[in-house]
Amino acid sequence: MTNYDAILHIYQKLHISAFLKVLFLKFLIDNKTYIILTMIKFINLNKAVPYLILKEKYEEAIVAGQNNIEAISISSYSNKMNEVDSRYVNLKFISNDEFIFFSNYESPKAAAFNSHNQVAALIYWPSTNMQIRMKAKIKKTSDEFNQQYFFDRSEEKNALAISSNQSNEIVSYNQVKENYNKSLKNDDLKKCPEYWGGYSFTPYYFEFWEGHESRINKREVFQKIDGIWKQSILQP
Ligand SMILES: Cc1cc2nc3c(=O)[nH]c(=O)nc-3n(C[C@H](O)[C@H](O)[C@H](O)COP(=O)(O)O)c2cc1C
Q1: Distance from the CA of 161 to the center of ligand 1, in angstroms?
Q2: Would 18 be classed as within a structural domain?
Q3: Helix (H, G, I), strand (E, B) or coil at 81
Q4: Mean pLDDT score of the chain
Q5: Same-domain pairing of 9 and 76
Q6: Does residue 132 form part of some domain?
Q7: Within this chain, do residues 72 and 144 fall inside the same structural domain, yes or no?
């Protein structure tokens, strides 16, 4: 059992009210364990209503014991391939209004973002039956930010980022492991290579879909028009 599993296990076994669980969560936030427990780090969160709802729904999903809470699907369109594609990534930060994840800058997703910078992002938390749909423009984070983030990561993770030519074909899985071990031994594991780093997207559209047993599901949309968030309700 990892630290994360152990803490989550204790947390789920707590026979206390949801209110007390949130208090416990706040305690964890203050004591950094929150980062182990939840993965997404909120920094100076934007004060606009959709961001406050997002944070509230996130905390509800934690209280409900949601695993892999940081998994988010990113859909992109490639002009070159004339094709739409999706993949999950781990959302690491929500910094003010920016959602940040990390990837390989030479991967198929990177080529798609280069050719068409509009993406759709999707979260589903089964523990609370909550779907969050977003539309956004995506861009790379700065080299300085990437270097700092890479420096703070474990050398094992960095070796994989350095050694993997992401999504390119390779002769065998063994070769993947060999490349990884070579990198672990020989590379500077604190220096972020230029082909790896963060992506940041700032949504201009949010839809919060909340499933209800009655099937009378609640759908609340926020759309940014001329700098102002317009709120509306959609039929289920
Ligand atoms: C839950 C989950 C989280 C993932 N997180 C990341 C991530 O943070 N960054 C990343 O590059 N790939 C991540 N992956 C792998 C991607 O889904 C994908 O396989 C990879 O990025 C290659 O995508 P591409 O060929 O579209 O560029 C994750 C996969 C899963 C299932």
Answers
A1: 12
A2: yes
A3: coil
A4: 91
A5: no
A6: yes
A7: yes
